[in-house]
């Protein structure tokens, strides 16, 4: 049991670091890791895909709380915008968590993975694409802890609708939702990368909490693994936030693209029954 304890702490730390670094939440590491552990260790054999997703979403709360507290000290979190995104993503996460009991479509996993690769390519080409103005009804001026000022905006109804579907993805796959949320914030609403990743973690904290309530009601939490993952997830959340603060906006975009490719590979493998 000592080896599995160390393994799960390490998994939690890696998940927390990767998740908070680019605003994804960490589920891309936790879910496949739990499914592999379930096959290797008899005491964890009752971890089904739905339980892995539910446990992952619970750990995402710790990761996002840890990093949000760090980002808040740096004044990188746009709380006002974050609450608006949560209006859509919160209910969406509960719907997604509920749908885990019915969802068995392999083709959707593959399609989702390919879509993530497409998003990664779009981010790579963002500055080369023709700029198309989006009709905004909110214009934001945001100043971070370093005195940097940013201007961006969004359309309220568009934010709520998009974030609702992002919330469903979050609850369904246990990945926190940032894999879609951060690209949407950067590409559609012109959020600066540092503000987008930090604000994304705050939104993920709120929506994952609601999704976890649904998973607890359905019994989709493996409490022993959650307990062992928790210390690493908390420390990793702080580590990822610290690394993020040291990267430039360009560096963050590179890290985001790599993380999106990891999400894509994970989903395609799952749909192909390789994970």
TrEMBL record:
Cell location: Cell membrane; Membrane
Keywords: Cell membrane, Membrane, Transmembrane, Transmembrane helix
Top-level taxon of origin: Bacteria
Membrane topology: Multi-pass membrane protein
Transmembrane segments: 47-71, 83-101, 107-125, 159-189, 195-217, 224-245, 251-269
Primary subcellular site in the record, as a coarse category: membrane
Keyword field contains Transmembrane: yes
GO cellular component, one term: plasma membrane
Keyword field contains Transmembrane helix: yes
Family: Belongs to the 4-toluene sulfonate uptake permease (TSUP) (TC 2.A.102) family.
PANTHER family: MEMBRANE TRANSPORTER PROTEIN MJ0441-RELATED (PTHR43701), MEMBRANE TRANSPORTER PROTEIN YJNA-RELATED (PTHR43701:SF2)
Record's protein name: Probable membrane transporter protein
Species: Thermoflavimicrobium dichotomicum
């Amino acid at each position: 049991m000592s080896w599995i304890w160390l393994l799960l702490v390490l998994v939690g730390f890696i998940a927390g670091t990767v998740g908070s670094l680019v605003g994804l939440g960490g589920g891309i590491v936790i879910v496949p890791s739990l499914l592999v552990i379930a096959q290797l260790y008899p005491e964890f054999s009752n971890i089904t895909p739905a339980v892995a997703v539910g446990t992952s979403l619970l750990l995402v709360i710790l990761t996002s709380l840890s990093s949000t507290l760090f980002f808040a000290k740096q004044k990188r979190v746009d709380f006002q915008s974050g609450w608006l995104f949560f209006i859509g993503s919160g209910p969406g996460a509960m719907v997604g968590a509920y749908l885990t009991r019915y969802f068995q479509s392999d083709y959707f996993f593959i399609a989702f993975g390919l879509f993530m690769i497409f998003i990664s390519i779009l981010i790579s080409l963002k500055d080369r694409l023709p700029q198309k103005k989006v009709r905004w009804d909110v214009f934001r001026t945001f100043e971070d802890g370093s005195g940097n000022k940013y201007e961006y905006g969004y359309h309220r109804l568009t934010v709520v609708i998009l974030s609702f579907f992002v919330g469903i993805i979050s609850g369904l796959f246990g990945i926190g939702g940032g894999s879609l949320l951060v690209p949407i914030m950067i590409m559609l609403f012109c959020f600066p990368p540092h503000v987008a990743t930090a604000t994304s973690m705050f939104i993920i904290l709120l929506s994952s909490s609601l999704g976890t309530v649904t998973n607890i009601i359905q019994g989709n939490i493996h409490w022993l693994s959650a307990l062992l993952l928790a210390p690493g997830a908390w420390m990793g959340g702080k580590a990822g936030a610290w690394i993020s603060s040291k990267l430039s906006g360009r560096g963050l975009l590179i890290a985001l693209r790599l993380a999106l490719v990891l999400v894509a590979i994970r989903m395609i493998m799952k749909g192909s029954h390789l994970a």
